[in-house]
Amino acid sequence: MQLDLSPEATYTFLLILVRASSMLVSSPLLSHRGIPAQAKIGFAVFTALVLAPITKLPGGQAPDTLGRLVDDVLREALFGLGLGLSMNMVVIGLQMASRIIGLQVGFGLGAVFDPITGTEFGVFDQFYSLLVTLVFFAINGHHLVIQSLAETLQAVPPGTFDPFSLSPSGITSLVAGLTVTAIRIAMPVMAALLLTDVGMGIVARTVPQVQILIVGAPVKIGVGVLVLAAALPVTMQLMNGVFGASLAGSSRVLLGGAP
């Protein structure tokens, strides 16, 4: 195999490397602070090496001015960040369900600071974070990320991205759909805790001697954990479907296609 080191091929590799590196900054899970920087750089370089030979440079020539070089690099950086962010919305939408459940059960006050992510997390936040990570790699989500990047190279060749061509309606529909999915995931626990609150209210009215504030907290935690365990198979199916559809279609959403 002969290695092509022409200016056009080198410039194509550079633009793809910028797009892949920018995507890794905001992509789901792959941008985690726990992943070493060397691994991220190696992943971006390997992806660029694989995609560069099958990507055509618009115009067929490398730039002859510094202004065009800077312009193309900035376009690729913006597009990579936008692509990674659109895919990361999928994970954020799924983790939203953990916040809803944690607040309803009563674990919201027990949140602690996570030095890796730089945010606060509760018991259910950590559980759902691990669950989302397992589902992501179980369905080869990292392959879907690379597939989305390869699709964008065909739809938007390197150096041709127009920031004003983004589709606000597509991104809005994606966020709305993920919010509905988060509510669907949290709905079994929310419904069970609502019935529990109604039952505790009836007990408080009929048996005033019972200290509802003391008894209610462990009861709600027990009911929440039991319902969460019972609904776990359905939750896994929902996460699987959301990852498979939304990650693969994130590039179309960003470019204005159907989600």
Please, could you describe this protein's structure?
A hairpin with a 4-residue loop joins strand 1 (112-114) and strand 2. This protein has helices spanning 7-26, 37-51, 66-105, 123-138, 141-155, 168-206, 212-230, 232-254, and strands spanning 112-114, 119-121. It has 259 residues and is an all-alpha fold. The protein starts with 6 loop residues before the first helix and ends in a 5-residue tail after the last helix. The chain has a two-stranded antiparallel ribbon. It has one domain.
What would you say about this model in short?
This protein has 259 residues and is mainly alpha-helical. The protein is 72% helix and 2% strand. It contains eight helices and two strands.
Order of helices and strands: HHHEEHHHHH
Distance between the termini: 39 Å
Total number of strands: 2
Overall residue-averaged pLDDT value: 76
The percent range for strand residues is under 5%
Given helix and strand content, the structural type is mainly alpha
| Radius of gyration of CA atoms, rounded to a whole number | 23 Å
Number of domains: 1
Please give the count of helices: 8
Give the CA-based shape: elongated
| Unreliably modeled segments | none
Helix content: over 70%
Main beta sheet, described? 2 strands, antiparallel
Identify the strand order in the major beta sheet: 1-2
Q: Descriptors for this entry?
A:
T3SS_IM_R; single chain; mainly alpha; cilium; two-stranded antiparallel sheet; Flagellar biosynthetic protein FliR; membrane; 259 residues
